[in-house]
Amino acid sequence: MLEGFERAEKRHMAHPTLVPIIDLFTCIIFFLLLSTSFIALTKITVPPSKVSTITDPIAPPPLAPKILLTDVGPQFKLTLFWAGATPGQDILLIPKSGDLSSLEMQTRVLGTTQKLARQFNQRYPDEKGIQLGLGGGIPYQLLLSTMDGLKDVLPDVILISHEEAEARASQGGPENKNAVPDQT
What we know:
Elements: H1 18-42, E1 66-71, E2 75-82, E3 88-95, H2 103-123, E4 129-134, H3 140-151, E5 156-159, H4 162-172, E6 179-181
Parallel strand pairs: 1-4, 3-6, 4-5
Antiparallel strand pairs: 1-2, 2-3
Helix pairs in contact: 2-3
């Protein structure tokens, strides 16, 4: 052999472990297969909802009547108001006497509510629902009396919060021109 030339040693090549690489490719294949099925789901289109047409362009807005019982010092104020083509309101004042949860007071509120509900029903006989709200501090018994006064005339009674009732009642103010003391 030639001197000066030494035989080069063979380099040792590291062999990568194939198991993690095969696991990686398996995960990628499953991901691609599943994602293509989800892509098909996102292409589903939902048909538009049915569009209703108004046959009567001059249909009046709904009445949405509300009745409110609020405390205005020496008396309760029972306010009935409605929207619609001819919005309006009726107000009756109920004087307080003695214990607010007494039978006399409950009967007075019941009679006044029935009177107001019947007047409204004479004007709008097709209306069957009404929203009822009470101001803060009004006894539960008067809520029941008010509901009892409404249920025969307007059977669908929906309760609203006392915050909304007081806010709406304060718009007219306690000394409203339309307020009439109840004589019952």
